[in-house]
Amino acid sequence: METLAVALEPYKDTVGLTAASITVLQFFSGFLVINDIRKKGTTEGFPVGPFLGGAVFSILNIQFGQMLRDDAMIKVNFIGLALNVIYVCAFYLYTVGGSAKGKVWAQTGLAGAVTVGILSYVQYEDPKLVEFRFGIILTVILLLLVGMPLLGLGQVITTQCTAGLPFPIIVSGAIVSLSWLLYGVILRSDFLVMQQSLALAICLVQLSLFAIYPSQPPKRSTKPTKKTN
After folding, report:
1. pLDDT tens-place string over residues 52-103
2. What is the separation, in whole angstroms, between the first and last Cα of the chain?
3. Position 45 confidence tier, pLDDT thresholds 50, 70, 90
């Protein structure tokens, strides 16, 4: 990795800007989901988890960016935080029913508590250990977010089609992971490299499903079968 880091060192700003720009574009994909909710007029069938998870992950990455003294990571995650807060607010606006709204509040409170807990831990942890352990926490959260589409793997296998998988989001996720992987190599950040390598691997596994199964379910034949005497 050291040889690659030295080779990419002159392109640090370019790689960082590219990774940040692609990540920001990926953040805007949430508007597509919100638009679908708007058309439907309700959030029924749409989870708020990805938006809350995105907000939590952005806040924690801002903290990690401060540890690494990396302005690109801090700036892009401030944008991600702002957009995910907008998505959560829009989600709540279209949530119908007191119990459903209460569930959104409960999940938001849980996400906030987890965030405060992790940030508090960072402040009191041994400075020699905090980057290593904080990196593990970020990696676990990232893999949970990236791997969410795999929850529908059973349905994909059963229907033998990938209609339920968000192809644009998975492709953009793979590109984002690759970009930050290269940036992590330049920064010589073992955790950023490990984190993005695992995320890229999960995205590639999901993309491989599109090579195995069609995007539409196979058509069943409607022709009557001939009876044999």
Report:
1. 888 998 999 898 888 878 787 788 889 999 999 999 999 999 998 888 889 9
2. 72
3. low
**Cα separation, 62 vs 74, whole angstroms:** 5
Using N-to-C axis directions, what is the helix angle for 190-212 and 167-187, rounded to 10°?
A: 150
Confidence label for 223 from pLDDT (cuts 50, 70 and 90): low
Q: What integer pLDDT is reported at residue 142 of this predicted model?
A: 79
Which spans in 125-226 are helix H? Answer: 127-146, 153-159, 167-187, 190-212
* Run of H or E residues at 95: none
Q: Is 2 helix (H, G, I), strand (E, B) or coil?
A: helix
Q: Where are the alpha helices (DSSP H) in 9-44?
A: 12-27, 30-40
Separation in Å, CA 107 to CA 1, 64, 146, 192? 40, 24, 19, 28
Question: How far from 102 is each of 7, 33, 66, 96, CA to CA, in Å?
Answer: 53, 21, 34, 10
Question: What would you report as the CA-atom Rg of the chain, rounded to the nearest whole angstrom?
Answer: 21
